[in-house]
């Protein structure tokens, strides 16, 4: 369906200059495209990978992200065979002691990333956005009245460009918006396994050097995302990482892998700002702390919604940096809440004694644990 729409859009007349050119066809870029086309803007999305693009992702969408997907109108397009509801999160320590944190409302949703991207692409195209795959961006030239984007298939012009090109954003770096990070470097490795989910919870297995996060994404598939500190594992691979968590290894015994192992990192990314003349950053390109909070997709979707709301006013005012101050302040507030929750979890994860004491305390004081979970959900990003 998406390929047919892409062929149809290729034959349709296109503007000589787009209102918004989005670099990156993942959830952040597509959410921005949906929000922008909903405002009546002409939108072009450029994605360097083949359709549907895939990357390392925990694939668990927390309630703020679920609300954003509802607001974006994505759910009617989703292949429900690649979704699975989860009611909460279970943290499991080395000694197998654990604690469960139930999510508010209907809980969260595990979604295979490729299924999410397919659904969001179809939604964006139905609203009028044009999405081009296998189109790498080499350079962006910001001129006084437009941006010129140089790609592997030619040049395109727009009134502004949105960088949604991920952790290792080329646009962020070349625009001088990347800041040095003193945060510890962490890496991730993800693989899917054909096995019936044994719980309706996301399970987070923790030890002194990292985590293994298991997210149900269908009735017969789980996503396992391993995360570890740089330099503590000599030869990280799925098998060596799984051996750190015997209880998880037992669950996966005999389960065939149904995707290739993909890696990502280092995860921490800091920015000096999220805007420049004729350019805005969104999603991971606009800063990232860590995957431990599971809030990455919610950040991407909600920051895209936020940017989409500001785009008409930004473009009317020339799309210069000064016209984006309102978006910059709002995006900073959203990121600060995400930073607080994620940093707090990282501090606990890196100090096993404090983590064990906290988990054991909350296991016997469940009301306090439930209140903390509600507060964390309130702090996590949500503009939908």
Question: Mind explaining what this structure looks like?
Answer:
With 384 residues, the protein is of the alpha+beta class. Strand 5 and strand 6 form a beta hairpin. Strands 1, 2, 8, 9, 10, 11, 19 and 20 form an eight-stranded mixed sheet that branches. The chain has helices at 2-11, 27-37, 63-72, 113-126, 170-174, 238-242, 246-251, 296-316, 325-349, 352-364, 366-379; strands spanning 18-23, 43-46, 60-61, 83-86, 88-92, 98-102, 108-111, 130-132, 137-142, 147-151, 154-163, 178-179, 186-193, 201-207, 210-218, 221-229, 262-264, 270-271, 275-276, 279-281. The longest helix has 25 residues, at 325-349. It contains eleven helices and 20 strands. It has two domains: 2-80 and 104-180 and 267-379, 3-Layer(bba) Sandwich (FAD/NAD(P)-binding domain), CATH 3.50.50.60; 186-264, 2-Layer Sandwich (D-Amino Acid Oxidase, Chain A, domain 2). Helix 3 packs across helix 8 (296-316).
How confident is the prediction overall: mean pLDDT?
88
* CATH fold-level assignment of the largest domain: FAD/NAD(P)-binding domain
By DSSP (H or I, 4+ residues per run), the number of helices equals: 11
Number of strands: 20
Total separate domains: 2
User: CATH homologous superfamily of the largest domain - what is it?
Assistant: FAD/NAD(P)-binding domain
The outline comes out as globular
> What value does the Rg take, in angstroms?
21 Å
Q: How large is the share of residues in beta strands?
A: 25-35%
Structural class: alpha+beta
CATH structural architecture of the largest domain: 3-Layer(bba) Sandwich
Given this structure, which CATH class of the largest domain is correct? Alpha Beta
Portion of residues within helices: 25-40%
Distance between the termini: 28 Å
Largest sheet: 8 strands, mixed
Question: Which ranges are low-confidence, i.e. pLDDT below 50, for 5 or more consecutive residues?
Answer: none
């Amino acid at each position: 369906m998406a390929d047919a729409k892409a062929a149809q859009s290729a034959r349709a007349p296109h503007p000589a200059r787009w209102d918004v050119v989005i670099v990156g066809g993942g959830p952040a870029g597509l959410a921005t495209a949906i929000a922008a086309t909903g405002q009546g803007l002409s939108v072009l999305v450029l994605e360097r990978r083949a359709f549907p693009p895939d990357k390392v992702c925990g694939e668990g969408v927390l309630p703020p992200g679920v609300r954003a997907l509802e607001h974006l109108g994505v759910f009617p397009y989703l292949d429900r065979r690649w979704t699975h509801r989860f009611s909460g999160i279970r943290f499991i320590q080395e000694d197998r002691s654990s604690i469960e944190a139930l999510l508010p409302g209907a809980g969260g949703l595990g979604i295979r990333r490729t299924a999410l991207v397919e659904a969001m692409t179809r939604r964006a195209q139905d609203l009028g956005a044009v999405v081009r795959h296998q189109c790498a961006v080499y350079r962006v030239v910001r001129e006084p009245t437009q941006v010129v984007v140089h790609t592997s298939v030619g040049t395109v012009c727009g009134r502004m460009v949105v960088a949604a090109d991920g952790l290792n954003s080329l646009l962020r770096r070349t625009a001088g918006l990347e800041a040095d990070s003193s945060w510890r470097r962490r890496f991730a490795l993800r693989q899917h396994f054909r096995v019936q989910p044994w719980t309706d919870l996301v399970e987070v297995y923790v030890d002194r050097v990292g985590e293994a996060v298991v997210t149900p994404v269908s009735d017969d598939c789980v996503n396992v995302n391993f995360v570890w500190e740089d330099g503590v594992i000599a030869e990280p691979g799925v098998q060596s990482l799984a051996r750190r968590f015997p209880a998880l290894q037992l669950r996966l015994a005999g389960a065939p892998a149904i995707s290739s192992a993909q890696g990502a990192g280092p995860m921490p990314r800091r920015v000096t700002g999220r805007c420049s003349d004729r350019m805005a950053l969104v999603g991971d390109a606009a800063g990232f702390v860590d995957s431990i909070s599971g809030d990455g997709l919610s950040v991407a979707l909600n920051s895209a919604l936020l940017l989409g709301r500001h785009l008409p006013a930004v473009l009317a005012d020339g799309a210069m940096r000064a016209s984006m101050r309102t978006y910059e302040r709002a995006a900073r507030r959203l990121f600060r809440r995400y930073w607080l929750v994620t940093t707090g979890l990282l501090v606990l994860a890196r100090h096993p004694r404090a983590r064990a004491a906290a988990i054991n305390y909350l296991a016997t004081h469940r009301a306090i644990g439930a209140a903390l979970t509600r507060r964390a959900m309130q702090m996590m990003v949500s503009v939908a």
